[in-house]
Amino acid sequence: MRTTRDSTRKSVMNFILKTRAKHIRDSERSRQAVLKESQSGSVRSTDDVNLFVEQMVFLLPPFVMFPSFFPSHLCFICNHRLGLLLVCVVCVPLFVFPVFASVPSDGFLDFLCFGLSASLFGSLLIWILPPNQFDYQELLHNSSFCLVPRGRRLGSFRFLEALQAACIPVILSNGWELPFSEVIDWRKAAIIGDERLLLQVPSITRSVGRDRILALRQQTQFLWDAYFSSVAKIVLTTLEIIQDRVDSHVSRSRFLWNSLPGGLYAIPQYSTDPAQFPFYYAILGKSPSQQFTAVIHTVTPLQSQISPVVKLIIAVAKSKFCAQIVVLWNCDKPLPPRNKWPSTSVPLTVIEGQTKTMSSRFFPHDVILSDAVLSLDEDSVLSTNEVDFAFIVWQSFPERIVGYPARSHYWDSSRSRWGYTSKWTNDYSMVLTGAAFYHRYYHYLFTHHVPASLLTMVDRMANCEDILMNFLVSAVTKQPPIKVTQKKQYKETMMTQGSKASRWADPDHFAQRQTCMNAFSHWLGFMPLVHSQMRLDPVLFRDQVSILRKKYRDIERL
């Protein structure tokens, strides 16, 4: 047995030496040409090779000879200055020599050896493929795992490439302090290995279940979008981390940094308790607010007890979920006395705005105590049943805007700009805040996160504040709003055409909203609005059954 093994080893070594010598002679000219290109700076350095696993398919390449010698291996694709490389990490027991292979006619082999134990030898088999046969980005985005070795420095730009492509980074760079590791838990998005134990990578990746692979890939997308997708976000994240160090008593927890929508949208000055934000109710098992505060924006004087705002206050006050009603008096006329307002079973508070601007309707007033806010225009037409049903729906979607009037956006290819439409179609992307529920945290985010230039634009036009709120909420949640029931008329027709509230009849109103759409998308750098075709109706809504079997009976009569 020993004689047979020695004979086989001698034959194999002779074959390797002959193959290696022929390879060196044939490829010397190509190597010199590549070296000149590298020195001129026209191509990447070998250290910049991006290694990533193509679906982690552990198959021995067909050009490797004597496959019985190789019980374990790892194949992956990498990007090289000469084209795409097919790389195989091969484990050869009992033999201490580089792996042998047949040389393809359209490429050449290169051998890189790793220092392992005497009884176990590992090496890299690299086959340079023609660059026109494979697309680097396609392979990258179709990969489940990406090998991220050290680059010129300790870190590697390939780490960000993997995050962007939703490819799980397999980090092989001992001693590398990962970006923002002070607040980001990278073990939820990457597999951190030891570069000294390279041959354990296949078994580690094979042991990862499908559910965890999905969770890891989702986390890579969240971290990329939240903190690394632009230079502005990287700089802002750095500044926010420094601020948390300085103001440690109001700093964000790691839970906020590692959960949607991320630390940049969880302002610690509002609260450091995750349970106070609408995004974490489901994760923490917290129930949404059981009551709401109605905030009515008023811009016309109170003329009589049959004014639309009076009827609206009476209808909202009858809701069993209403905790209080707040009237924002942004009218130029003096505030009417208390006896002019209707008597209600819930507290009625009238706040006179100091600036009386459109953006002030979303100011985080201290009198708003409940998490749920019902935002209303003074000429909105809603019944008590409609209010109750919309609130029940909001409790299932506390992080979104839930309401009645829906609008949509579209891309105008002829003008290369975004458009705004109020046409009734099969989908929508906005729910106007003239009759909608949302969490009160968005008041704080609207006031302290939106740039002052956009707020000034809204105040100057006296328009678009509802669109801006939809942009903000969609940018945070990455989800569309929720429309409830099929209701076309939600505005009071009794409002006089000369009143300030009749801005919808202004011919410039629609053009201004088109301008706002493009200004807001330019601020964000992308279009956050998401189309939806879902509409939620009460059970048995408009079904041919007895009205006594329906809970919200008045909705169908309107």
UniProtKB/TrEMBL annotation:
<comment type="similarity">
    <text>Belongs to the glycosyltransferase 47 family.</text>
</comment>
<feature type="domain" description="Exostosin GT47">
    <location>
        <begin position="135"/>
        <end position="208"/>
    </location>
</feature>
<dbReference type="GO" id="GO:0005794">
    <property type="term" value="C:Golgi apparatus"/>
</dbReference>
<dbReference type="GO" id="GO:0050508">
    <property type="term" value="F:glucuronosyl-N-acetylglucosaminyl-proteoglycan 4-alpha-N-acetylglucosaminyltransferase activity"/>
</dbReference>
<dbReference type="InterPro" id="IPR015338">
    <property type="entry name" value="GT64_dom"/>
</dbReference>
<protein>
    <submittedName>
        <fullName>Exostosin-1a</fullName>
    </submittedName>
</protein>
<comment type="function">
    <text>Glycosyltransferase required for the biosynthesis of heparan-sulfate.</text>
</comment>
<keyword id="KW-0735">Signal-anchor</keyword>
<keyword id="KW-0812">Transmembrane</keyword>
<dbReference type="Pfam" id="PF03016">
    <property type="entry name" value="Exostosin_GT47"/>
</dbReference>
<feature type="transmembrane region" description="Helical">
    <location>
        <begin position="108"/>
        <end position="129"/>
    </location>
</feature>
<dbReference type="GO" id="GO:0050509">
    <property type="term" value="F:N-acetylglucosaminyl-proteoglycan 4-beta-glucuronosyltransferase activity"/>
</dbReference>
<feature type="transmembrane region" description="Helical">
    <location>
        <begin position="82"/>
        <end position="101"/>
    </location>
</feature>
<dbReference type="InterPro" id="IPR029044">
    <property type="entry name" value="Nucleotide-diphossugar_trans"/>
</dbReference>
<dbReference type="InterPro" id="IPR004263">
    <property type="entry name" value="Exostosin"/>
</dbReference>
<keyword id="KW-0325">Glycoprotein</keyword>
<keyword id="KW-1133">Transmembrane helix</keyword>
<keyword id="KW-0328">Glycosyltransferase</keyword>
<dbReference type="GO" id="GO:0015012">
    <property type="term" value="P:heparan sulfate proteoglycan biosynthetic process"/>
</dbReference>
<dbReference type="GO" id="GO:0046872">
    <property type="term" value="F:metal ion binding"/>
</dbReference>
<dbReference type="Pfam" id="PF09258">
    <property type="entry name" value="Glyco_transf_64"/>
</dbReference>
<keyword id="KW-0464">Manganese</keyword>
<keyword id="KW-1015">Disulfide bond</keyword>
<comment type="pathway">
    <text>Protein modification; protein glycosylation.</text>
</comment>
<keyword id="KW-0256">Endoplasmic reticulum</keyword>
<keyword id="KW-0479">Metal-binding</keyword>
<keyword id="KW-0808">Transferase</keyword>
<dbReference type="GO" id="GO:0005789">
    <property type="term" value="C:endoplasmic reticulum membrane"/>
</dbReference>
<dbReference type="GO" id="GO:0001503">
    <property type="term" value="P:ossification"/>
</dbReference>
<dbReference type="InterPro" id="IPR040911">
    <property type="entry name" value="Exostosin_GT47"/>
</dbReference>
<keyword id="KW-0472">Membrane</keyword>
<feature type="domain" description="Glycosyl transferase 64">
    <location>
        <begin position="292"/>
        <end position="541"/>
    </location>
</feature>
<feature type="transmembrane region" description="Helical">
    <location>
        <begin position="49"/>
        <end position="70"/>
    </location>
</feature>
